[in-house]
Amino acid sequence: MRLYAPWEKAFERIATPFEHFIHAQTTTGIILMFMTVVALILANTPLTEAYVHFFHTNVDLSVGSWHLKYTIHHWINDGLMAIFFFIIGLEIKREILVGELSDIKIAMLPILSAIGGMLLPALIYLSINSGEDGANGWGIPMATDIAFAISALVLLRKRVSPALVTFLVALAIVDDLGAVIVIAVFYTDTIQFVPLALSALSFLVMVVFNRVGIHMILPYFIAGLFLWFFMLESGVHATIAGVIAAMSIPSRPRQTPIDFTNHTRNLLDEYDNYPVATDHVMHEKQKAILLNINDRIDAVGTPASRLEHDLHLPVSLIVIPLFALANAGISINFSSIGNTVATPVSLGIICGLVFGKVIGIAGVAWVSVKLGIAKLPESSNMSQIFGVAFLGGIGFTMSIFVADLAFIENPALLFQAKVGILAASLFSGLFGYFWLRFIAAPKH
Fold it and tell me: Would the pTM count as exceeding 0.90?
């Protein structure tokens, strides 16, 4: 008999792409939590030196006179995380084309709430760090970790409506788009225009592939590697290449669903016309028909949907856990943790993620509903939006990523930022979960 994790049973009944997406994000959240604990243990035991040394080991790639020489930490943050950002790009594209962001009436609430949830935390952080060395970290509390936030909602199951989960997903997608723009525009120090032009050319090649109807993945993969490399050399953070590449992946099928249904039904009828041998071996024509049906299944699907589905597992099991292991490990001196939390950087992040996110998301949602600009998700109320706003204060993955960019030359400020991110994310996640679980009654 198969044993199920609590969040898995709900997904045995439904197999839509959106449900697969939620399931993948839930799995990511659970694994991410585990790897964060492992990283903290490694950073606060006698294994600390080995832990730090491993992620600062150089790994070289050389071809003749050309070479890339970066630490394992750098390869994870600039290389593997580009795949994570590629998934984000595919999710953004899907939501805009066919998801919650495709209908402006439905999308208005999460869009406005996300904007409020990005701007207010940044302003709160700047108000605390104005004139301080850590002022450059204003982008850190703007982010929401979609995996952790969705995990909390899914674990609540019947306490929240499906529409509320959809609202959080749409909000987080808009939030991710905002984070990508902030990273590209504000956390790029110098730009090398020749590599940037070559990266634009690589993207143009991928767009041409799309326009001429190429649905094979390999050409996009090869051009995407060039796009990533040129983006890395240009000075713009290489992970942005992942989002840009995702925009070029075809999202339209070669065959319409109606044609697929008609042709497949005819092929199945033809398949049934052949007698089954006594040893249950298929006729050669039946094998050919099955191959034809398989090709038609690929034709009615899209490269974008296949890649999003196929990459979620390796990103969930490899990329994000490695990122957490490499970045979440901070050596904590509990005797001075109070002083660290009181520093402007930590305090700004905590206030931004806890108060800024809640006021920005829930406050803008309340004003939008009162003004008639938007309406609440079905079977939900403002108390539940308040709880979801707290879950929006779980910054973690994107917040740590931005912190690493903001304070890459200042380990002390980076440490303060990580302490603030962990403290704020833990409080926001627990408070949001318990609020939705025990206080915010579902609307019937």
Answer: no
